[in-house]
Amino acid sequence: MDKETMFEMSADALEDLDPISSVFDLSGKVAVISGSGGLALFVINRLLECGAKVVFGARSTEMADLIVNHFKEAGKGDIAFKQTDITKVADCAALVDFAEETFGPVDIVIPVAAYWQPRAFLDVDEEVYDSIIDTDMKGQYFLVQAAARSMVKAGHGGKVVTIASVAYRGEDMYKLAMMTPYNAAKAGVVGMTIGIAKELKQYGINVNCVAPGGMVTPGALTNSGKTVELYGEEFAEAQAAGGHETPVAETPDEMARMIVAMCTNLSDFMYGKVVDVDGGAGLSFQAKPFSYTMEGGIHA
Q1: Per-residue pLDDT tens listing for the chain (300 residues)
Q2: How many CB atoms are closer than 10 A to CB 194?
Q3: Cβ contacts of residue 44 below 8 Å, gap of 6+?
Q4: What is the C-alpha separation between 179 and 292, in angstroms, rounded?
């Protein structure tokens, strides 16, 4: 085959492509989010900027009112809230029903709400275990299920982006660990993402997962309060010292941008994949250049 023919075979396909600017256009799409502060707030912000209509559910009505007022005053788009306890299956279904009544069938679901509490494995009790598993895995499972039912009934496909954490691969607090229920929950999220993806592809629904690393959020700054009460200031000092060894995003927007990207046509050929956004955690980055350091080299 000659070069001209080979070129024309590819060039003809270029004519059918949508412009790249349209890839991130979510105008008219209805997105359901769980959570309010921290990462959820930044995801909501980016979804609205892309033109999506956003319905979010969380326990705190006070925080929700602040969020809704902020975005409405900024003129960023359509947003609505329903008080939701993500650990209750009925609440997950009610949040999706509310989204349908408010804006129409669901196109996107992102179960962001999460909870953790550092606790030594030998000290974890049933209450702590259940609160973490029910929020971080059960809540995601049944919110995705409710949203997927809306997508299937509407017959227009959709995007599911579950939220794991680098904890799924065993990452936790440097030289402390103490996050076994969270490790288990986030590993479970990865497993369920793959399973759900295999079932929902036939309906034109992409199911993928984003696994954030460390980031500065109100939750990250306060979730260890009870742990400090249990183990004392020595724990707080060890946690602070270990934090310097972990890449930490200054804002959750580093993660939010990838999460929202996975809600766009960017993920059309992706199913059951986990995208780690962790600042290179686990990599041993070179601290200084050694390339061509000899006399006359570029770093000499």
Answers
A1: 788 888 888 888 888 888 988 999 999 999 999 999 899 999 999 999 999 999 999 999 999 999 999 999 999 989 999 999 999 999 999 999 999 999 999 999 999 999 998 999 999 999 999 999 999 999 999 999 999 999 999 999 999 999 999 989 987 777 678 899 999 999 999 999 999 999 999 999 999 999 998 887 776 666 667 788 888 787 777 777 766 667 888 899 999 999 999 999 999 999 999 999 999 888 888 888 777 776 777 766
A2: 15
A3: 33, 54, 56, 67, 71, 79
A4: 44
Q: What is the pTM of this model?
A: 0.92
Amino acid letter, 215:
M
Q: Give the active site residue among 129, 182, 203, 271.
A: 182
Q: How far is CA 244 from the centre of its chain?
A: 23
Rounded Cα–Cα distance for residues 215 and 65 (Å): 24
Kindly provide the residue ranges of all beta strands, DSSP E only, lying in the chain, ordered along the sequence.
30-34, 53-58, 79-83, 108-111, 158-163, 205-212, 214-215, 248-249, 274-277
CB proximity list for 291: less than 8 A, separation 6 or greater: 297, 298, 299
Q: Is there a contact between 242 and 174 (Cβ–Cβ < 8 Å)?
A: yes
The pair of structure tokens assigned to 165 is 């954490």
Asked if 69 and 91 count as a contact pair (C-beta separation under 8 A), the reply is: no
Query: Is 168 marked active-site?
Result: no
Q: Between the CA atoms of 201, 157, 270 and 253, what dihedral angle is there, to the nearest 10 degrees?
A: -140
Measuring CA to CA, which residue among 122, 100, 129, 89 is closest to residue 30?
A: 100
Which residue type does 74 have? A
